[in-house]
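Continuing the series of single-chain predictions for the mutant panel. This is the parent chain; the variants come on the following pages.
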Amino acid sequence: MQMLYVKLANFTGIPAISVPSGYDNNGLPTGIMLHGKWYDEEKLIKTSFHLEKLFERQKPQVFYNY
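Parent structure:
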């Protein structure tokens, strides 16, 4: 079920974006997939930008700082 709606955006050509939404019980990142109307990419990008600011990010357990 995790990737069920990804194919819908590809098949129909509607704009879609995946936004980080937090972490599950195992510490793995989760996301929200948003779909918009045709030719309404600007609203979709602005909405995802504001949503992404609401969630706190964590460094992964294995982190390489080059």
